């Protein structure tokens, strides 16, 4: 790791150092301030112990899959949020010791002094834009398996350790271990201060850290001063807060992030009992309370399962029992909701992880009175999926997320180019809309042709499915932006053929015509068409989205494994049909483990009376019976099936792209220099991938492609 050339204890270095050292463009906008006075309250400064936040916008800790392994990417990604007006910018969880190693997740790390420079980069970057840098110190105790360090996990009591069924146990900590842990936390706090952080966290959230594990009755069966009564179980939390204040409290604020409700009733911490009691007990000890519900699946609830501000019933009591500032989250994107939270005394600061990812400039846009420029989070948790598979963050709404340093992509700015050059975008789904928006921002003359009357492609259709209404924001944000651009023309009801495209004669043509669900059962498990699937009783998601109403009993064959199979089953069941979800995976919508939705989806499907037939592939359709095969033994069984819905794989709608590229002479004669398929028309994937493809197309148009790695990488020093 290359230490920062100017790394010194303290803070306050200027913008040029960061910008020059990391080649990250510091944008300077001169937008006149036209803030609606209703939102003034959001821009009041908030004292937090010895430091002051310049406004009430607080980026709470969130993972991004960059952390200790990609510190420059981490610093740049956090810096754009500071530039975008967030007054406090926090790290993701920061491991403090090798016995709390969350490998394979890539979080922050402060195991010893060698880890300081990587984090100092971030603190410095955040200071560059006048924000406070916060760090969430964590020891994951029995929530990690120490796969890299191979240390024996530790916990309040003997218990299984790790996640994802790790065959590992944590040993019970003795009093010497507790003393050692407190020393590690003190040392990490000192290092955090040296790295330049202004706010140092004690973490007791998400069922992920030792102070919380000690609090939990189910995890703590100790008979000493750290077990038994709540006072005893809260002892470690109290001590660590006191230690941290003593160590760094003179110059750094000490924040506590704590789960006040595990949504487990009497089996866990609940805001009606111990969640409230512990806050009352420690009310004035920290400088700030950052409160939420647990575990992460409940805290980062997707929009399919909960609304904006959904945590209020659990966290609202906190402000009643402490005089310290309170931060909370709730996927806040509406400034009116934010104001309401402050005015009604629910929160002092508007905490956000996902809304700050989807729009790093959300505060600035409110401040500048540009509400229709806000890119609202859709609550899909694609951002979380990056962390879940130990890869850098990505976001459905913000294609620049995670690309700030390695590709130099700023969330609000694209270098001007292409003036006068015309680009024809065919198809107004997420890929086409984002391509048109970003091309328009660059300065191209853009023509966007859409076959249908509605814009939005798959997003417009899928947002009508149960729970997915917020997804329409992918379309709405882009259409709002396009409507403001005088260099973009939109043509609805315009299904283009190759002849139309040639006639149009734009310099560049981008084909974003989407894809079509397969009807033959071919997917991950079946490589050949499934026998018997050529009848009218076989429907695809396209048919259902177009309004087809299948007869029951219905078999939904989910060999796609993301949301579509589960959400269609939910819709059809709500319409009164008997539904069985058949899947070769161990659960319905198996990939949604990565979006923290798996448990919520199984619960919803089972409670609706949907049968889940797991570990089975569709082998054949015989009249009104579907033949299933066990994926392990090939044992066969039949289930009633008046209608079959195949949710397996998709094929790109690439006829137009292929026929155009097959006529190079005609293209030349028409003055067309390039034809390129993007998004689902190239290879079907997520909505996030389609938005990214549209954005990337615009960024790269006119650039000479190199044959090397198309982005900067960071190498271990
Ligand atoms: P993606 O996810 O890649 O953006 P979508 O399927 O969401 O793909 O969107 C594709 C859009 O392209 C749809 O709105 C569809 O109506 C439109 N489209 C498909 N073929 C044509 C065509 N030949 N001319 C114009 N629009 C088309
Ligand atoms: Fe919001 Fe989805 Fe982006 Fe995450 S990926 S920030 S949930 S829009």
What is the topology?
Blueprint: H1 15-22, E1 46-48, E2 51-53, E3 57-59, H2 71-83, E4 88-95, E5 108-109, H3 116-128, E6 132-138, E7 154-155, E8 159-161, E9 168-172, H4 175-195, E10 199-204, H5 210-215, H6 230-233, H7 235-248, E11 253-261, H8 274-282, E12 288-293, H9 296-299, H10 312-315, H11 318-321, E13 326-328, H12 335-343, E14 349-352, H13 354-358, H14 362-367, H15 382-388, E15 422-426, H16 430-442, E16 445-449, H17 458-462, H18 473-483, E17 488-491, H19 498-504, E18 508-511, E19 515-517, E20 538-539, H20 541-545, E21 554-558, H21 563-574, E22 579-582, H22 598-607, E23 611-613, E24 616-622, E25 625-630, E26 636-640, E27 643-647, E28 650-652, H23 655-661, H24 664-669, E29 674-677, H25 687-700
Parallel strand pairs: 3-4, 3-14, 4-5, 4-6, 6-10, 7-9, 10-11, 11-12, 12-13, 13-14, 15-16, 15-18, 16-17, 18-29, 20-27, 21-22, 21-27, 22-23
Antiparallel strand pairs: 1-2, 8-9, 19-28, 24-25, 25-26
Helix pairs in contact: 2-3, 3-4, 4-7, 16-18, 16-25
The protein binds adenosine-5'-diphosphate (ADP) and iron/sulfur cluster.
């Amino acid at each position: 790791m290359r230490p920062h050339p100017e790394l010194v204890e303290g803070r306050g270095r200027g913008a040029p150092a960061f910008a020059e050292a990391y080649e990250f463009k510091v944008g300077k906008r001169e937008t006149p301030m036209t803030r609606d006075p209703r939102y003034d309250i959001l821009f009041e400064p908030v004292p937090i112990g010895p430091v002051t936040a310049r406004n009430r916008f607080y980026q709470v800790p969130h993972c991004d899959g960059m952390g200790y392994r990609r510190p420059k990417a981490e610093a740049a990604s956090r810096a754009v949020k500071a530039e975008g007006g967030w007054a406090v910018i926090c790290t993701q969880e920061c491991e403090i010791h090798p016995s709390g190693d969350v490998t394979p997740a890539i979080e922050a790390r402060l195991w010893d002094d060698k880890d300081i420079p990587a984090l100092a980069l971030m603190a410095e970057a955040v200071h560059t834009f006048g924000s406070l840098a916060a760090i969430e110190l964590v020891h994951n105790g029995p929530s990690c398996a120490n796969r890299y360090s191979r240390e024996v996990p530790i916990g309040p009591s003997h218990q299984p350790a790790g996640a994802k069924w790790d065959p590992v146990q944590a040993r019970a900590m003795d009093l010497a271990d507790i003393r050692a842990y407190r020393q590690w936390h003190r040392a990490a706090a000192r290092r955090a201060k040296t790295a330049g952080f202004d706010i140092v966290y004690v973490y007791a959230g998400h069922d992920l850290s030792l102070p919380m594990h000690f609090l939990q009755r189910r995890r703590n069966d100790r008979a000493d001063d750290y077990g038994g009564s709540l006072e005893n179980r809260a002892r470690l939390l109290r001590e660590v807060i006191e230690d941290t204040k003593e160590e760094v409290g003179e110059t750094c604020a000490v924040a506590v992030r704590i789960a006040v409700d595990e949504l487990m009733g009497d089996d866990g911490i609940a805001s009606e009992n111990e969640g409230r009691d512990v806050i009352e007990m420690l009310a004035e000890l920290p400088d700030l309370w950052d409160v939420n519900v647990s575990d992460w699946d409940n805290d980062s609830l997707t929009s399919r399962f909960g609304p904006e501000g959904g945590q209020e019933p659990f966290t609202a009591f906190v402000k009643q029992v402490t005089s310290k500032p309170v931060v909370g989250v709730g996927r806040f994107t509406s400034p009116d909701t934010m104001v309401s939270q402050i005015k009604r005394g629910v929160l002092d600061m508007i905490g956000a992880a996902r809304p700050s990812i989807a729009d790093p400039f959300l505060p600035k846009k409110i401040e500048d009175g540009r509400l229709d420029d806000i890119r609202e989070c859709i609550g899909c948790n694609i951002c979380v999926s990056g962390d879940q598979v130990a890869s850098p963050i990505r976001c459905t709404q913000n294609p620049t997320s995670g690309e700030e340093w390695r590709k130099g992509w700023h969330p609000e700015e694209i270098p001007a180019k292409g003036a006068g050059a015309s680009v024809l975008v065919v198809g107004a789904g997420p890929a086409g809309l984002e391509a048109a928006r970003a091309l328009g921002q660059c300065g191209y003359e853009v023509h966007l042709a859409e076959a249908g009357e509605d814009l939005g492609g798959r997003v417009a259709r899928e947002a009508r499915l149960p729970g997915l209404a917020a997804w329409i924001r992918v379309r709405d944000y882009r259409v709002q932006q396009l409507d403001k651009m005088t260099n973009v023309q939109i043509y609805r009801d315009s299904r283009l053929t190759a002849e139309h495209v040639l006639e149009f004669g734009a310099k560049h043509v981008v084909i974003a015509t989407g894809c079509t669900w397969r009807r033959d059962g071919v997917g991950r498990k079946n490589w050949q068409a499934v026998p018997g699937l050529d009848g009218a009783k076989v429907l695809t998601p396209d048919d259902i989205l177009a309004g087809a109403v299948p007869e029951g009993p219905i078999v939904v064959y989910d060999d796609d494994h993301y949301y579509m199979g589960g959400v269609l089953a939910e819709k059809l069941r709500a319409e009164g049909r008997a539904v069985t979800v058949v899947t070769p995976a161990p659960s319905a919508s198996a990939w949604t483990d990565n979006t923290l939705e798996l448990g919520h989806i199984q619960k919803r499907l089972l409670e609706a009376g949907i049968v889940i037939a797991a570990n089975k592939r569709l082998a054949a359709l015989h009249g009104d019976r579907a033949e299933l095969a066990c994926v392990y033994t090939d044992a066969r069984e039949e289930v009633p099936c008046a209608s079959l819905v195949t949710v397996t794989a998709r094929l790109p709608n690439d006829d137009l792209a292929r026929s155009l590229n097959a006529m190079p002479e005609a293209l030349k004669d028409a003055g067309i220099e390039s034809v390129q398929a993007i998004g689902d028309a190239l290879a079907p994937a997520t909505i996030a991938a389609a938005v990214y493809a549209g954005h990337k197309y615009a960024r790269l148009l006119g650039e000479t492609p190199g044959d090397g790695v198309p982005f900067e990488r960071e190498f271990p020093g």
